């Protein structure tokens, strides 16, 4: 079994005292080494904290997205433990690198479920991985919360699968409407998508349907792979049709390179990037050519509730910028586990339950709860689909050097 241990050092070392210490449970160390539990009992091993599995991309190109998620999950671990954890018992994240492919996620899920005996799993990063790994958790009856799985069909994988990441079907159309607001003369639209990625295939379907619903002219659909670096052929073919808008569904490295090459080949119209491009980590890929790219958001730093205020301030103090969507969604995912575990514990003390009972009751509690999160108020349908109130659209602004940029939210 491949075991991934490479860990991108993150800006996590010192998430310090901005949170008020409500009570002080013992603080988990927060490292990511997998300590195999040799416990022979079947109750949850919570001497160091209640173990919540986290499977995020810390290596591969998907780490451009996963890095931001790890920050959010770790901020949440610290924050909710400072708030008293689960009625006085801390949580302990069991962090595994899911890499960027199916096998990475499958290995991580197996380790967490059978060796680390986690109560639930936040992950994996990609829908492509979720379709491969979530069935393992479903069979083992381990609740899974997708932090960023947005393809159609993820909650339907099984009874134990839910997500905090709103689906492309409700998020992506907002970007097209925002583009039309900026340029009401848009008529011809070219669409690009990565054909080897489940999320990108799902997102492009939504984008293509939206284009048709808005009576725009879909002039071409170009395909690529998330591993591609050269997009000259597809870009030239699309540009020759004179589109007013180009929409890209891919991941960060491929998507960033495609934007760069479209601009270098002379395309001057608006570009929409999908959720796979929703990270400032694309700035180093497309540099000044990232400027103007429009991306729909399931999070806004302006969300007006106490937990987002604290989250935003803490993140900004550490990172000198506004929190990104993937960080906020991972933070919210940990919160849902925490709030649902509290609800279970209030009914039946957690240490009185077998691990099987705890996982089952946790799943029920997740689905029936209501949560005030950094994403706003959320809840779940019985199937595990997130119910979220509002979505947003941002546009990338790069400075003249092409080195620094930011996401500015559109009104
Ligand atoms: C998915 C996505 C990715 C872009 C998240 C990192 O939305 O795979 O569903």
TrEMBL record:
Gene3D superfamilies linked: 3.40.50.2300
CDD domains associated with the record: PBP1_ABC_HAAT-like (cd06348)
Leucine-binding protein domain residues: 50-400
Name this polypeptide is given: Leucine-binding protein domain-containing protein
UniProt-listed Pfam families: Peripla_BP_6 (PF13458)
Cited InterPro entries: BCAA_transport, Leu-bd, Peripla_BP_I
Sequence similarity: Belongs to the leucine-binding protein family.
Leader sequence segment: 1-22
Alphabetically ordered keywords of this record: Signal
PANTHER family reported for this sequence: LEUCINE-SPECIFIC-BINDING PROTEIN, PERIPLASMIC BINDING PROTEIN OF ABC TRANSPORTER FOR NATURAL AMINO ACIDS
PROSITE patterns from the UniProt entry: PROKAR_LIPOPROTEIN
